[in-house]
Amino acid sequence: MPETYQGSSTPTQAVVAADGEPFTLDKPLAALQLIAQLEPRMTVVTVSGIADNQACATSLRQVKASGLADAASHVTLEAIRHAYPVEGLFKAITLTKADLLILVARRRSFLGTMFHRSVTNRLLRTCHIPMLVLPAIDG
């Protein structure tokens, strides 16, 4: 939760950051129950330096398969073209007027961990809306 959050008391618009890679949520029950209580509008967002419709469609399928979208009142898909994931997610937050960012955090190889940890850490330090970070298992 940001130190100076000024938004609504209950999130109504969620952005789910998805990258098109397969994932399975690790112990998702509490998170899925929270999302079910919120019933937010949900936008699945992919950020890429190139237009990649396949990754967008795959991301949407994977978010739906994980159960994250089950309790959403409405689900949409947004492709953000940006070279930097964090800035791309901030752009998506602004475009969708999101008041919750849902981030899937995976275990990775050493180099992948360094990259994704830096993205996650940067988001945790600088994101101006509440975040729900969900641990996941690749594949």
Overall morphology: globular
| Distance between the amino and carboxyl termini | 29 Å
What's the name of the CATH homologous superfamily?
HUPs
CATH class: Alpha Beta
Please provide the ordered H/E string of secondary-structure elements: EEHEHEHEHE
Strand order of the largest sheet: 2-6-5-1-3-4
User: What is the fold-level CATH name, i.e. the topology?
Assistant: Rossmann fold
Structural class of the secondary elements? alpha/beta
Number of strand segments: 6
Q: Overview of this structure, please?
A:
It holds the Pfam family Usp. This is Universal stress protein. The chain is an alpha/beta fold and 139 residues long. The chain is 38% helix and 28% strand. Helix 4 links the parallel strand 5 and strand 6.
Tell me the layout of helices and strands:
Blueprint: E1 13-17, E2 23-25, H1 29-38, E3 41-48, H2 53-66, E4 74-81, H3 85-96, E5 100-106, H4 110-126, E6 131-138
